[in-house]
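Thread title: Can someone regenerate the structure for this chain?

I was given the following input by a collaborator and told the matching structure tokens would be attached. They weren't. Posting the sequence so someone can regenerate them.
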Amino acid sequence: MKFTDSLQISPVEWSYQNKERNFAMKFLEEKLVVLDLPVATPEEGIRAAGALLVAEDLIEPRYVDAMVESYEKNGPYFVLAPLIAMPHARPEDGVKEASVSLVRLKDSLKFGNEANDPVQFIFALGASSSEEHLLVMRKIVSLLSKPENVEKLKILSSYEELQLLIGRN
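Best answer:
Regenerated them for you:
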């Protein structure tokens, strides 16, 4: 009997979960979060979220340009839920390390996604492979899957409150 036979999950799921346990990323660390930023356009919001990652040397500046170009070319496909945008680009556009930043907008903005506008939270994603991209997305989705967490994101007033929300203290 193989080890995975004794589990209630498939070998693929087991492998995926093990990789996630060993997966390191810069996820909403203090220098990667800005609350209540005034921006006038979606592009400005995307650039602000990307600039946080550039400042910490997690992505190259051209990655930010690629996120904006993707939005301009493909539309707001990354506005995945009400209030939530997750712009990203391809790994080869300049990802150095898996990372996620957050900009909470002072005033919500329309990105052009009829179903999910307006956007209040921009989570910029940087991942160096498809596998990392899925793991980063999974981590964000686990945070945002509870409506009460989104409500808490709307009103938190400090990074310490965010740490408590994401389980760091």
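The CA atoms of residues 101 and 140 lie 11 Å apart.
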